[in-house]
Design goal:
The chain is of the alpha+beta class. The chain has 10 helices and 7 strands.
């Protein structure tokens, strides 16, 4: 269906414009020696309203001969042919309408009135149809531009989702490698502890897979995952590992699943593991009006050996945050006074948690 006919509001506005065109036409018809102003309006306005529906065909012409794909010769032929035919068809309609008005006594001489204005009717009709075609091509260009923007936006979204899926897929193998390595180390020292660690690992994986399938989860559930992970590590470190999790007022904020787990894992691997007396892994959350600040702190031994790993954890978190929020989010990390602190600053999001497999 024609877009103007699809909505009554559009059709009403369209016809109002043609009433204005009818008034302009009446000023040409009512020139000296012709009908009076009232008679000219009676002729021109109904003719203009009827011609308005003729000019709807310009929309179909603009789509059958697009500017970007039609050869110049065919384009000129289509525009000229449609304009001339439509304006020519309007002439018998004008003659018929003037005859109707003459029979009702509105116009004194139908033949003389038509003969005097037939050139005016044809030229005005040609001009109006060309204007309708120009408007249709302008709207078609606007729609094409919007469609191109929509496709570009969808392409960016798909690329971002593909990046997020790839980044999300890095978390589990990286975590499993480190945890299984810990279990393997425990089997030779404390088989019972290794078994407990396997059970806790199974529970953690079951929960993380359920939540990992969602795009966003409440921070409270993310912190529960952190606690489960730290329970696993507590089997290995015992009293050397102490935990302090403070959700603050941010439990309801939505975050990507397993966002904190790589950071906490780094706190264990590069912090607690190198401390003879162990230490406390502190996870805090603070929500302001527009920003959610997540922080992980752990003691750091200045004499610890340099890391030999690829550093996937922090890099993964940075990439996920950048892909999700661009410049509206920030991840920063550094050591100060024997404490390593990693902060994640995100825009506050308290919408509904959504499911999917895009993370």
């Amino acid at each position: 269906m024609h877009p103007i006919l699809a909505r009554r509001g559009r059709l009403a506005l369209y016809l109002v414009g043609w009433v204005v065109a009818g008034v302009l036409l009446s000023s040409l018809v009512a020139r000296p020696g012709g009908p009076g102003s009232v008679e000219a309006l009676a002729i021109a306005i109904p003719m203009a309203l009827a011609y308005a529906f003729f000019c709807l065909s310009a929309w179909y012409v603009s789509r059958s001969a697009p500017l970007t794909t039609t050869t110049p010769i065919r384009l000129i032929a289509s525009i000229a042919g449609a304009s001339l035919i439509t304006a020519a068809v309007w002439l018998p309609l004008a003659q018929f309408w003037i005859g109707v008005l003459a029979r009702r006594g509105v116009v004194a001489d139908a033949g003389a009135t038509f003969d005097r204005n037939d050139t005016v009717f044809f030229g005005f009709g040609l001009l109006l149809y060309l204007l309708s075609l120009a408007t249709s091509y302008l709207l078609a260009s606007f729609e094409h531009s919007r469609e191109a923007e929509r496709r570009a936006f969808e392409g960016r979204v798909l690329a971002r989702e593909a990046e997020l899926r790839a980044l999300r897929a890095q978390v589990d193998p990286h975590f499993l490698f480190n945890t299984l390595h810990s279990i393997a180390s425990l089997t030779a020292v404390d088989a019972g502890a290794a078994r407990r660690m396997c059970v806790l690992l199974g529970d953690f994986l079951r929960e993380s897979l359920a939540l990992g399938a969602q795009e966003r989860i409440p921070l409270g559930r993310e912190l529960d995952l952190v606690r489960r992970y730290l329970e696993i590590e507590h089997v290995r470190f015992g009293d050397r590992l102490r935990v302090d999790v403070e959700p603050g007022n941010a439990d309801a904020c939505l975050v990507p699943p397993l966002l904190l787990q790589p950071i906490v894992e780094n706190a264990i691997t590069h912090g607690i593991a190198h401390m003879v007396d162990g230490g406390t892994v502190r996870v805090t959350a603070r929500r302001s009006e527009a920003t959610l600040t997540l922080a992980v702190e752990n003691p750091a031994d200045p004499d610890r050996p340099p890391s030999r790993g690829p550093g996937l954890g922090l890099a993964n978190v940075r990439a996920r945050v950048r892909a999700l929020h661009g410049n509206d989010a920030l991840v920063r990390a550094g050591e100060e006074r024997g404490l390593w602190r990693t902060e994640i600053l995100l825009p506050v999001d308290v919408g509904r948690a959504s499911s999917g497999s895009r993370m």
